[in-house]
Amino acid sequence: MTEMVYGSVPVRDGEPVLPKWWRTIDKWSMSCILILFAVGLLLGFAASPPLAEKNGFLPFHYVQRQAFFGGVALVVMLIASMMGPVMVRRLAVLGFVVAFVALLGLPFFGTDFGKGATRWYSLGFASVQPSEFLKPAFVIVAAWLMAAAQEIHGPPGRLWSFGLMIVIVTILALQPDFGQASLVLFGWGVMYFVAGAPILLLVGMAGMVVLAGTFAYNNSEHFARRIDGFLSPDLDPRTQLGYATNAIQEGGFFGVGVGEGAVKWSLPDAHTDFIIAVAAEEYGLVLVLCIIALYSVVVVRSFFRLMKERDPFIRLAGTGLAAMFGVQAMINMGVAVRLLPAKGMTLPFVSYGGSSLIAGGIAVGMLLAFTRTRPQGEIGDILRGKFK
Question: Where are the beta strands (DSSP E) in the chain?
């Protein structure tokens, strides 16, 4: 009866790793990720040549780089998905320490590449954005602390995770990188809610976010400029948002045709932050809806599988990763259609970018590891193990 209700699978002693992994992995979610990566390559063939021509490279230079980084991301994803929850947690804690130290060093050794925000380390042949790797690692660390707080005589893990979140959000906001800061805050808030946070506390935190946003608007020219541009009733057609909006309108339902789009020649970030505008113009609403469906399948299936999970750490960590994955996609597409202020955020597995692709592979790999079917045990066995 327990297996029928909770979807657990019998333990097979001596079963090899690969057959066990294939039997327990969420094949629908993994397939959706592979399709998203293929869509990213397809759109890269359209969006990358103008940038390559501008920078003096071969037409498909950036497509080749995306294929390379994407291949690395998929390998990392598959390796991470084969790990057990304990191994994932240990490696994530180590990765968090490294990424956090790298984040602290950005003001001294980082670069902004002329974009007004110091977010990257330039390695010559590539660049690294520490915040991309910090996000999934922070989710695991915060979930570990919150789960530990639920144990009898456990540490004040919720308070510690809250303090850690405040420190990270503050550092990101000072770069300034309000997009990544909001993602970290949202991921932590979802986990804290699932862990049993009082509604009044969450309402109070929402009020604090409003106050922090007001302070940032009054003291940050970068933040105020983006908010003013979003709230302005008049949209300058020569801005990135103007080009993207026009491209989406021109695409209509079926698009203007493969290779016939014009927005890629006007948008400097057509291959990254505004890749969905290229998809909408050349392939129309049909492809955009397919992309939205792919992200939705990954998030919804992950939530349903995590609902059956009894281990609080796995449930919290998986929920945080799935929520952050879905919200990042929603923010990227929301900016392109002017539902949200510009935030400079990539579309997971579709946009060009080495750091975002590899970090996304790590995050989804850990999510697939947490959503693998596993024996849950009888309720009586769990209670006896908890209270003995």
Answer: 121-122, 127-128
Of the listed ranges 101-110, 205-214, 350-359, 366-375, the one predicted with least confidence: 205-214
CB 292 within 8 A of CB 333: yes
* Longest alpha-carbon distance in the chain: 68
Residue type, position 375, single letter: P
Peptide bond into 176 cis (omega under 30): yes
Task: Tell me how many degrees the CA angle 280-285-289 measures, rounded to the nearest 5.
Answer: 110
Assess if residue 11 is contained within a domain. Answer: no
Q: Which residue has the higher pLDDT, 90 or 203?
A: 90
Return contacts of 169-172, CB within 8 angstroms, 24+ apart: 171/103, 171/104, 172/103, 172/131
Mean of pLDDT values over 126-149: 94
In a domain, 3, yes or no: no
Task: Tell me if 382 is assigned to some domain.
Answer: no
Q: What's the pLDDT score for residue 153? A: 84
- How far is C-alpha 47 from the chain's CA centre? 22
Closest CA to 272 of 199, 342, 324, 212: 342
Q: Tens digits of per-residue pLDDT, 244-300?
A: 888 888 888 888 887 778 788 777 777 888 899 899 999 999 999 999 999 999 999
Specify the number of domains making up the chain: 1
Q: Phi, psi at residue 111, to the nearest 5°?
A: -140, 160
Name the band, by pLDDT with cuts 50, 70 and 90, for residue 162.
Answer: very high
What are the C-alpha distances in Å from 383 to residues 109, 157, 388? 51, 22, 8
Q: Quick one: tokens of 99?
A: 């990424």
Q: What is the domain range of residue 160? A: 16-374
- Residues 242 and 86: their CA atoms lie apart, in Å, by 47
For the four alpha carbons of 187, 87, 31 and 26, in that order, the dihedral sign comes to negative
Query: Is 135 within a domain?
Result: yes
